[in-house]
Design a protein that fits this description.
heterodimer; A: mainly alpha; 2 domains; two-stranded antiparallel sheet; globular; B: alpha/beta; Rossmann fold; 17 strands
Chain lengths: 347, 926
């Protein structure tokens, strides 16, 4: 056998980017299960529908770019994007909402920038932000949680959900939707936070569903940390800064600002902390940089939720910090071995 | 076993499969005596050793065969007894697979030692002598880098060494050479450490060893019980690369070696465990370094174990002895799997740094899958022992942003390979860093060279300037002296009132050059006048031609005499001044030669005229010509001699010539590089970008040389040969234009095919265009300056007649307008330097032509005026006549039949008038 000549190292740990992405997908399963359990078949259908679209789009674009299709599809990054978008969209969002979202995410936000590894913005969040701005009605009617069935609510059947999403005539989801807690909090008018809970007894009953979903995402995140898919820096910094700021305002003006637990468990906070902000491609790269990056997201979430126009803010906060990531990178180089202090800035 | 010393930790690190157990089952065994050893002259860092034996010499085992050269180098000894059969290049263990100088010894099988003896008590020897003794043994670091050991032992001379660290970590997978050495020869290890400690006198000695070698640790502890040494055996957790010098120092002391410094700067010296035994054997037994422990392992190896191997043993011998299954061996790694190199030639020998051979099968070392995109997951960052940002370095290296890479401490990378090991995208990261480092080193080197050249050039300019000033001062000095001499001479002349001025001047030895010159000039003028008169007379057939001819001959004689007197007078002082004013001399000689040539030509013409007309004294003329020819030859010879003489004036010329030769050579290089690059681009070779950069650099060099030449030429102030310059420049421009066109075409093709090199090429094209413009500007300048100098150049110009000149001017104008229009047609903001340069050049040409034309026209007008014709008036008349003709023609075309007759007549008259005027005008404008 002819001896090959190749430079070191000659040992390589087994593993591929595809494995990393698959691990992330596995970590989303508890959240997906919780969503399906509490909000019905909608989320699962969105995830599957999105995955189908994303794989098709990715394959088409990769083919257009004359690159090996299977090589790029097996990194599963398109699937991850689709799953995250599916988890973020309202369960009863019409089919075309997801389609537009996937086109934006895969074609524009990812492939047009050069494909995986080259996109400055988190594709799923670009799509989410665009959908939220463009289709506020479809994007803000969330499914009512299953725990309210005792009060006369019930989760839609699989067939009806499919009908609702794919527009079969005669299925109305109005009776099965409601605003999210964040939405209600945002549009509570002159009520104090306490009065809001009293006013919305239904919500007070159903809030447990959101807590459970957040817990599921948290579990998934811990799994990823254990698997060393990412380091603790980003999620801890993000949740920490959100907790600190919301605690501060809650202590100062409990009437006006909801408690920190509400902030940490409502909306997409946990999904964002462990699955969105930790996207390595679009986040800061050094450990110190990740701390700043995460803290910035946490702070922006609070700012936008409290004083902004939109009830939830994870997408906008992440996108804004994506913008800052290259800058953060310049000022957060680690101190290298043998150097008294880290280099800063850029030459 | 517990550590008595606190173990620190270093950032990152990985835990690859150890694969060490395979080769520790059997004790170290002696490898069979090789039939032939190959000893590379360079087995260490530093300069290669110099052979001290010749081919055919018989050498004994342990005999010095190559001697260290310089401070950082190591001796090389024969590892077998036998005959030197060759001193020639042979493949050596190197990443590039290159060949290097080797001594090849054929073993005689007797394995006969040279007489050798250890030191009885090394502690009684002065330190310097002991170190020299160790240096003689040719010991170089056996851990991997191969740094000559004696240099490290000298570190105590000018550093305070607090801590001696013995590196027994052996963190690379597979390798067990140090492990087995410690297990079996712990006493030798400790003996070596004793010697080092004696030399360096450290306060603290530590042996750093990974916790995966419990038997070695036990052996060391057991040996330590019988040793006077006071040292700490520090057990570190197994983690790659804890055996890296800097990492081990951090582990054992918590201290970091500052970037770009050596451990001794922080009071630490590190020695490999293998080196300690080599020192022991050298000092105690007097054995030079001729063998070492080598691990032979890997799935394809039949016996996986450690051998004591003679330095220079070809790998093939060792692989055969280990019964390596060649059909299974896919990769032969020298060293460990993390930092080792692969070789494809089994004849490569074991050297002083060879600690392991891995005969890897394809299953244990599969080819790396294709690299996926970097997702900046940061796993590399988490494992980097140098605490770098490998993912960022990767992007910078890939984008060739070397400044940024350097700013991100690229040069602190130790190339341990941990980042590549963990990269989920299978990116060969270390390879990117090696590439970036090599590129940066190359750039630095080029920069250094360029700086050097610049400094030299500036110094040269300064010197030339200084010389010029000095020359000027000398000239002034001479002028003053001459004035004084003249005043003195005038006084003398006055006192000798009756003597003829010319002869007096000659006699005085200090001739009045000026006077003689004006005499000569007057004579020349008279001669010319007479010639003209004669020609006039001949043309008009006037009488008295004979008288005129006689006068002319007389005048010629006089003129020649005057001129001769002048030249003679001139030559006399000049000869005196050859040393001080060689330049003037040279110039003068050149002039003389030119004058002689002109005279000769004139005389020849006269002769021809005389032949034709059949009168005049042909014989006299012939004699004159012969004389002139002789003079001419003499003058030219004198000039050439002076020119080739070794004086400063010619030095500049020689410099220029040298530079020109350099430039030609450089041009050749550039052409070669360019064609190579083009080939590379066409074949889509990845080296194309690099080559493009190389070409650019060469071009820059070329330009620098050309600039130097230009500067030299302009500063050398030796009458710049303007005419030659312009034509040379023109041809250069043509060549450059061709290049630009070619480059542009290539670039367009590249753009069309979407080649990544297109950007580079665009830059190249622009550069070429700039060069072209520079040349064109130069040409314009040269032309303008030539045009300013009237007579000879204008005559040399092809445009001799006024008409032609005018035509040229109008052609120029048309061209200029066309080019301007072209430029205007281009979209705004779209720069076209070539076109702009064209326009600039055209403008300049147009201006020159116009100036020449105007001058010539004015001359003609003056001429005409002298003959009583107002050229202007004539022109107006001619124009009016032409207008009349046109008018008449028009009227005729409109007229009825009965009027035609008269009109035709009128037209004919007008035409005749117009033609007459035109012909007059033409006569004067020619």
């Amino acid at each position: 056998m002819a001896l090959i000549r190749i430079t070191s190292p000659h040992a390589h740990r087994a593993g591929s980017t595809g494995n990393v992405m698959l691990t992330v997908l596995i970590a989303t399963l508890p959240g997906l299960a919780a969503m399906t359990f509490f909000f019905g078949w909608g989320t699962l259908i969105q995830v599957l529908w999105g995955t189908l679209l994303a794989v098709a789009m990715e394959a088409a674009i990769v083919k257009l770019r004359k690159r090996p299709v299977s090589f790029y599809l097996t990194d599963y990054s398109a699937v991850v994007t689709a799953v995250l978008l599916g988890l973020a969209l309202p369960p009863f969002a019409p089919w075309w909402v997801m389609m537009i979202g996937i086109i934006v995410a895969i074609v524009i936000a990812k492939q047009l920038y050069g494909g995986m590894g080259n996109n400055p913005f988190n594709p799923a969040m670009v799509a989410y932000a665009l959908l939220l701005v463009s289709f506020p009605v479809q994007m803000t009617s969330w499914a009512a949680p299953f725990v309210m069935t005792g009060e006369g609510w019930s989760v839609l059947s699989l067939g009806d959900t499919l009908g609702a999403i794919f527009g079969t005539a005669g299925v109305s989801v109005d009776a099965h939707t409601m605003a999210t807690p964040l939405d209600i909090m945002r549009h509570r008018g002159g009520f104090t936070t306490e009065e809001m809970w009293v006013e919305n007894a239904l919500l007070a009953n159903g809030i447990g569903a959101w807590h459970a979903v957040s817990a599921a995402y948290f579990m998934g995140g811990i799994f990823l940390l254990y698997k060393k898919i990412f380091t603790w820096h980003t999620p801890v910094a993000m949740l920490g800064s959100l907790a600190v700021i919301s605690t501060l305002f809650f202590l100062l003006m409990p009437d006006q600002y909801p408690d920190p637990f509400f902030h940490l468990t409502a909306g997409a906070t946990m999904l964002g902390a462990f699955f969105i902000a930790t996207d390595p491609v679009t986040s800061a790269t050094s450990n110190r940089g990740k701390l700043w990056f995460g803290a910035g997201i946490g702070m922006l979430i609070f700012v936008i939720r409290s004083w902004g126009n939109y009830p939830d803010a994870v997408a906008f906060a992440v996108l804004l910090m994506n913008l800052c990531a290259p800058f953060i990178d310049q000022y957060t180089q680690p101190r290298s071995y043998g150097h008294a202090k880290p280099n800063r800035g850029m030459k | 076993m517990k550590n008595t010393v606190k173990v620190h930790s270093f950032h990152g690190g990985i835990h690859p499969p150890e694969n060490k157990k395979q080769s520790t089952g059997a004790p170290i065994s002696l490898a069979p005596l090789p039939s032939r050893v190959v000893l590379p002259l360079q087995q260490h860092i530093g300069l290669p050793a110099e052979p001290v034996v010749n081919v055919g010499d018989r050498v004994l085992k342990g005999q010095l065969v190559a001697e260290a050269v310089g401070r950082i180098s190591a001796n090389i000894h024969a590892s077998v007894s036998g005959t030197i059969i060759a001193i020639a290049p042979h493949p050596v263990p190197h990443m590039s697979g290159m060949e290097a100088g080797c001594l090849i010894i054929e073993s005689d099988g007797r394995d006969e030692w040279i007489e050798h003896q250890g030191l009885e008590d090394y502690t009684r020897l002065p330190k310097q002598e002991l170190i020299e003794y160790i240096r003689q043994a040719g010991i170089a670091g056996m851990g991997g880098a191969g740094f000559p050991t004696d240099v490290k032992l000298h570190l105590g001379d000018d550093h305070i060494v607090n801590t001696l660290i013995i590196n027994a970590a052996e963190c690379e997978p597979y390798i067990t050479a140090d492990d087995m050495l410690m297990r079996e020869r712990a006493n030798e290890v400790l003996g070596g450490i004793e010697i080092i400690a004696h030399l360096l006198k450290p306060l603290h000695i530590m042996v750093g060893i990974e916790d995966n070698k419990p038997q070695a640790i036990r052996a060391l502890h057991a040996a330590l019980d019988n040793s006077p040494l006071n040292l700490d055996i520090v057990i570190t957790p197994t983690k790659y690369p804890s055996g890296g010098e800097k990492q081990l120092i951090k582990l054992l002391t918590g201290v970091e070696v500052p970037s770009g410094r050596i451990p001794a700067d922080v009071g630490i010296v590190c020695q490999n465990i293998g080196t300690t035994t080599a020192i022991y054997r050298a000092v105690v037994h007097g054995e030079p370094l001729i063998s070492r422990i080598v691990t032979v392992t890997g799935q394809a190896a039949g016996h996986k174990q450690n051998y004591e191997v003679r330095i220079g043993t070809p790998f093939a011998d060792l692989l055969d002895h280990s019964e390596v299954r060649r059909e299974q061996m896919h990769r032969l790694v020298v060293g460990g799997p993390m930092m080792g190199i692969t070789v494809s030639n089994e004849q490569i020998p074991v050297i002083k740094t060879t600690n392991c051979l891995i005969a890897g099968s394809i299953e244990e070392m599969p080819p790396q899958p294709p690299a996926q995109a970097c997702i900046r997951c940061g796993m590399c960052e988490q494992v980097c022992p140098a605490e770098l940002l490998p993912q960022q370095l990767y992007w910078f290296a890939k984008g060739k942003e070397f400044d940024k890479a350097r700013h991100h401490n690229l040069f602190d990378c130790i190339e341990c390979g941990a980042c590549s090991y963990v990269c989920p995208s299978n990116i060969p990261l270390v390879q990117y860093y090696r590439f970036a480092k090599a590129e940066i080193r190359k750039e630095d080197e080029e920069q250094r060279k360029a700086d050097h050249a610049r400094i030299r050039f500036e110094a040269r300019l300064e010197r030339l300037e200084r010389e010029k000033i000095e020359k000027e001062e000398r000239r002034k000095q001479r002028a003053i002296e001459a004035a004084a001499a003249q005043a003195a001479k005038k006084d003398a002349a006055l006192s000798r009132a009756t003597t003829a001025p010319a002869s007096g001047t000659m006699a005085s030895g200090a001739p009045d050059l000026k006077q003689l010159k004006s005499n000569a000039a007057i004579a020349r003028t008279k001669l010319r006048k007479a010639e003209k008169a004669l020609a006039n007379a001949q043309e008009k057939g006037l009488e008295g031609i004979e008288t005129l001819q006689a006068t002319l001959q007389q005048l010629q004689l006089k003129s020649e005499q005057a001129e001769k007197a002048y030249t003679d007078a001139q030559n006399t002082p000049v000869q005196k001044h050859t040393q001080t004013a060689p330049e003037t001399d040279l110039k003068q000689l050149k002039n003389n030669a030119a004058i002689a040539r002109t005279k000769l030509k004139k005389a020849e013409k006269q002769l021809a005229a005389a032949h034709e007309s059949g009168d005049g004294d042909i014989d006299a003329l012939k004699a004159q010509i012969a004389e002139l020819q002789a003079k001419n030859i003499a003058a030219e010879k004198a000039y050439k001699e002076a020119e080739s003489g070794n004086n400063p004036a010619t030095a500049a010329d020689i410099d220029t010539a040298e530079l020109e030769a350099d430039i030609a050579a450089m041009q050749g290089k550039v052409d070669k590089a360019e064609s190579a690059w083009k080939a590379a681009v066409e074949s889509g070779s990845p080296a194309a970008d690099k080559m493009a950069a190389g070409v650019d650099k060469l071009k820059d060099k070329l330009k620098a040389l050309q600039d130097e030449l230009t500067n030299l030429r302009s500063s050398a102030s030796v009458t710049p040969p303007a005419t030659v310059d312009t034509s040379a420049l023109e041809s250069e421009i043509a060549v450059m234009q061709g290049k630009v066109d070619k480059a542009e075409n290539a670039w367009k093709a590249a753009v069309e095919s979407g080649s990544p090199a297109a950007d580079k090429m665009a830059a190249g094209v622009n550069k070429l265009k700039d060069k072209l413009k520079a040349l064109q500007d130069e040409l314009t300048q040269a032309k303008v300056s030539t045009a300013a100098k009237p007579a000879p150049m204008t005559k040399a110009e092809p445009a001799t007649s006024l008409k032609e000149m005018k035509q040229q001017v109008s052609i120029m104008r048309t061209k200029l307008k066309k080019a301007e229009k072209q430029l205007a047609e281009l979209a705004e903001g779209e720069a076209n330097p070539a076109l702009e340069a064209d326009i600039a050049e055209l403008k300049a040409r147009h201006d020159v032509a116009q100036a020449i034309f105007n001058a010539a026209e004015a001359e003609k007008a003056a001429d005409a005026a002298r003959q009583g014709i107002d050229l202007k008036q004539l022109k107006i008349d001619a124009a009016m006549a032409r207008a009349a003709v046109t008018k008449a023609e028009r009227a005729l075309s409109k007229a009825e039949a009965d009027h035609k007759q008269t009109l035709e007549e009128e037209l004919l008259a007008a035409r005749t008038e117009a033609e007459k005027l035109n012909s007059t005008l033409e006569r004067f404008s020619e």
